[in-house]
């Protein structure tokens, strides 16, 4: 689960099921209001998503589990999300990716005692993980990763068509750059949150027709806490 993923989905009007293997990460995101609910089984999480969808609500749930196990099970059940993405730390197969079937305690211990075994198991799990993402892609579900090297590892492990689905940047960000749209950040060296609110208001005045941006600024003020300097 990427930290901002659940909140970003909700701010875009979608319900989100985010798979996270670390219970502490789920609890932290609940405390900081980046996540709405948590679940310990896929059945429980899907029941929440179904209820929110029927009620026309956009909410998020963090499912405690391993994406390399949950995604294949979702494929097996015929569950079809509107979009599938991955933000695991697959670029670091020893310290950033929990192998399928392993407990957190086992993983932490073997990272010290047998890092080569951890890497081997993690890489094998990534292959399974990417295969499930390919299954979603082939079923017509928009699927992407975020440049975390998981497709490359899967290909090295023998999954020849690992790159059939795209990365987020070439699929979505580059076309925006071509239109002159991209990320823009500003900080208030005064340390006064009111200065951020003033700059937000000025941006809205300068972009009167950009409803999407206005909505984001309004929701950011409501849901996103300042970190360090505002």
List keywords for this structure.
230 residues; mainly alpha; Rossmann fold; three-stranded parallel β-sheet; two-stranded parallel ribbon; 10 helices; 52% helix; globular
Could you please describe the fold and organization of this structure?
The chain has two domains: 173 residues, Urocanase like domains (Rossmann fold); 40 residues, no CATH class. The protein is 52% helix and 8% strand. The radius of gyration is 19 Å and the shape is globular. The model has no long low-confidence stretch (mean pLDDT 94). The chain has ten helices and five strands. Helix 4 runs parallel beside helix 6, helix 5 crosses helix 6 and helix 6 packs across helix 7.
Layout of secondary structure:
Elements: H1 5-11, E1 16-20, H2 23-31, E2 37-39, H3 42-55, E3 60-64, H4 67-77, E4 84-86, H5 104-113, H6 115-138, E5 143-145, H7 150-156, H8 168-178, H9 193-206, H10 211-223
Parallel strand pairs: 1-3, 2-3, 4-5
Helix pairs in contact: 4-6, 5-6, 6-7
């Amino acid at each position: 689960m990427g930290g901002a993923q659940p909140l970003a989905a909700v701010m875009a009007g979608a319900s989100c099921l985010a798979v996270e293997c670390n219970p502490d990460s789920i609890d932290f995101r609940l405390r900081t209001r980046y996540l709405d609910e948590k679940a310990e089984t896929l059945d429980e999480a899907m029941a929440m998503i179904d209820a929110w969808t029927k009620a026309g609500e956009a909410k998020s749930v963090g499912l405690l589990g391993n994406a390399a196990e949950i995604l294949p099970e979702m494929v097996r059940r015929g569950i079809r999300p509107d979009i599938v993405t991955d933000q695991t730390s697959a670029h670091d197969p020893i310290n950033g990716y929990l192998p399928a079937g392993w407990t957190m305690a086992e993983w932490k211990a073997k990272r010290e005692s047998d890092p080569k075994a951890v890497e081997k198991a993690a890489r094998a799990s990534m292959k399974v993980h990417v295969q499930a993402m390919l299954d979603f892609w082939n079923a017509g579900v928009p699927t992407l990763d975020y440049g975390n090297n998981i497709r490359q590892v899967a290909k090295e492990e023998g999954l020849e068509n690992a790159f059939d689905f795209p990365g987020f940047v070439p699929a979505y960000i580059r076309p925006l750059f071509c239109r002159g749209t991209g990320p823009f950040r500003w900080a208030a060296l005064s340390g006064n949150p009111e200065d951020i609110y003033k700059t937000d208001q000025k941006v809205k005045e300068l972009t009167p027709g950009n409803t999407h941006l206005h909505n984001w600024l309004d929701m950011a003020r409501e849901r996103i806490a300042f970190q360090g300097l505002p």
